[in-house]
UniProtKB/TrEMBL annotation:
InterPro entries: KR_dom, NAD(P)-bd_dom_sf, SDR_fam. It comes from the Bacteria. This is SDR family oxidoreductase. Belongs to the short-chain dehydrogenases/reductases (SDR) family. Residues 12-193 form the Ketoreductase domain. Keywords: Oxidoreductase. It comes from Labedella phragmitis.
Length: 258
């Protein structure tokens, strides 16, 4: 057994939702480094194209594709997955990464905002996962990695919809496992701690919050998108062929201390 046979992704097609920037972009780059042909996704077509062009320069034109679609829209998802399978090839790896945050005390959360956060962080994984799994089941193989959060397990004030969605995503990972594992599909999740991206820039800039996070994290620092690359490549590779329904916390130890 070689490292290549364990972790190499040798031209397998990997779709990473929400990969025009932030964590998704770093995960797509790591999967490409491991040998995958990656499909980038996002809403903003210009940002997506500029990321695609960077990937093409780094990995080669034939190793990257881009698909701008809204992961919360059932029809767009169905059309995009069918088109990608025809245009790029069978999707062997799906990383459900697209997500949004909305910081408001629960008593002030408008129903539309609650719904939007649930849609982007949870329903999207069902919609894209269902569409891709229908094809993976026919092929008897596939890897799905859902990007959860420490908020899959913990709560804190002002992020109620996100906490509910990420908790749901943890259990959706188990539901997918219960139904799809026998078809050769491994569904797992990675739960990042506090990672410095655009989504959290305002928290990094908030001195009090910043020092609270560093103090609350045994590793005594913010995470980086690169910290998530190893676990996601592992869960996308043959090296995790008997790992099913697990949530791997990549949080500098935050969830194991009080
Ligand atoms: P960013 O805000 O930096 O990036 C979000 C990405 O999702 C963008 O590419 C955005 O595309 C895309 N996106 C948003 N809505 C949609 C949609 N409806 N359809 C398609 N794409 C969409 O987020 P992060 O990189 O910080 O977070 C990525 C994931 O990691 C999320 O699921 C988040 O919850 C999770 N996470 C993040 C943590 C952190 O500390 N940052 C901690 C724990 C979990 P566009 O550029 O077009 O807007």
């Amino acid at each position: 057994m070689t490292l290549e046979s364990l972790f190499g992704l040798d031209d397998r097609v990997a779709l990473v939702t929400g990969s025009s920037r932030g964590i998704g972009r770093e995960l797509a780059a790591a999967l490409a480094e491991a040998g995958a042909t990656v499909v980038l996704n996002g809403l903003d077509a210009d940002r997506l194209e500029s990321t695609r062009a960077e990937f093409a320069a780094r990995f080669g034109e034939d190793r990257v594709a881009a698909a701008a679609f809204d992961v919360t829209d059932e029809e767009q998802v169905a059309r995009a997955v069918a088109d990608l399978e025809a245009r790029v090839g069978p999707i062997a790896v799906l990383v459900n990464n697209a997500g949004i945050q909305h910081r408001v005390p629960l008593v002030d959360v408008a129903l539309a905002d609650w719904q939007r956060v649930l849609d982007v962080n949870l329903t999207s994984a069902f919609l894209v996962g269902r569409e891709v799994a229908r094809r993976m089941i026919g092929r008897g193989t596939g890897k799905i990695v859902n990007i959860c959060s420490v908020q899959s397990d913990l709560a804190r004030p002002t992020i109620g919809p996100y906490t509910a969605a990420k908790g749901g995503l943890r259990n959706l990972t188990r539901a997918m496992t219960a139904e799809w594992a026998a078809h050769g599909i491994q569904v797992n999740a990675v739960a990042p701690g506090y990672i410095h991206t655009e989504m959290t820039q305002n928290l990094v800039d908030d001195e009090a919050f910043n020092s609270w996070i560093v103090g609350r994290t045994p590793a005594a620092r913010w995470g980086t998108p690169a910290d998530l690359a190893g676990p996601v490549v592992w869960l996308s590779s043959r090296g995790s062929d008997f790992v099913n329904g697990q949530v791997v916390f990549v949080d500098g130890g935050m969830t194991v201390v009080v």
